[in-house]
Amino acid sequence: MPASPARFIQDALRNPHNRAVLERMAAWDLPDAWLVAGCLFQTLWNLHSGQRPDAQIKDYDLFYFDPTDLSEEAEQGVNQRLQAACADLPIEIEAKNQARVHTWYPGYFGHPYPALRDSRDGMDRFLVRCTCVGLQNTGDFSAMELYAPYGLDALYEGLLSPNPLCDHPALFAAKAQSYRARWPWLRIEAGGESP
Question: Which of 81, 91, 4, 109 is nearest to 54 (CA)?
Fold first, then answer.
C-alpha cells in the first residue's frame, strides 16, 4: 500500500491514545492546535515492527499557537488543563505554544531559533525530516487534516535524514541514534551518522 495521507491517518488512529486525544482536541479551544511528532510516527514504526501501536511512546505532543501570551506560566496552565482532560488515559500530554519557542530554544539547545508564524512553521523544523507530521481535528473527525511538508515516503521507509531548516548535526545524530536504538530497522542517511 503506498504512503498516502489516508493510510497515514488510518495507521496513526490505530493507536487508541492518538484517537482519544484527537477526538477531544476540538473541545479544548486552543488556537491552531495539532497533535504532532512522536506519537504519530512512532505508532507507524511500531506497527511496522509488529509491536503494539502505543509501545515505547513517551508522550503525546500537542502544538498550538497563541501569540497573546508568551509566558511559561500560560503554557504550564494549558498543560495542566489538558492533563486533567486526559486523566483517564495512561499517557503524558505535552503542549507547546509555538508562538514562544524562540524565547527559550536558544538557551535550552544553544542554537538560534526564528519567531514562528504558526504551528505548521514549528512542525517544519523538527530535526529529522520524515518526522515532520501533524494531525488536526477541527470538529469533524471524519475530515482529519494531515500536515506532512516533506511527504510520507521516507517515514514509511524508515529513512532518517537531517532537516536543513534545523541544521544541528550533533542534535540530529543523537535523535536519530535514539530512534534506531528502539527501531533497529531504521536507516540513517549518509552524513547523518555521529562522528
Answer: 91
Residue 40 CA: distances (Å) to CA of 36, 70, 71, 102, 110 = 7, 27, 28, 24, 27
- Reported as a single tens digit per residue, the pLDDT across 67-121 is 999 999 999 999 999 999 999 999 999 999 999 999 999 999 888 899 999 999 9
Tell me whether strands 159-160 and 145-147 are parallel, antiparallel or unpaired. unpaired
Q: In the beta sheet, which residues pair with residue 63?
A: 34, 96
Report residue 89 as a C-alpha cell: 488515559
Give dist(CA 37, CA 189) in Å, integer: 19
Please say whether the dihedral angle defined by the alpha carbons of residues 36, 66, 124 and 10, taken in this order, is positive or negative.
positive
What are 102's three cell numbers? Answer: 524562540
Integer Cα distance of 126 and 133 in angstroms: 9
**Displacement of CA 86 from its chain's centroid (Å):** 18
CA 181 to chain CA centroid, Å, is 19
Going from N- to C-terminal start, the domains of the chain cover 5-188
Checking DSSP bridges between strand 159-160 and strand 187-188, what pairing results, if any?
A: parallel
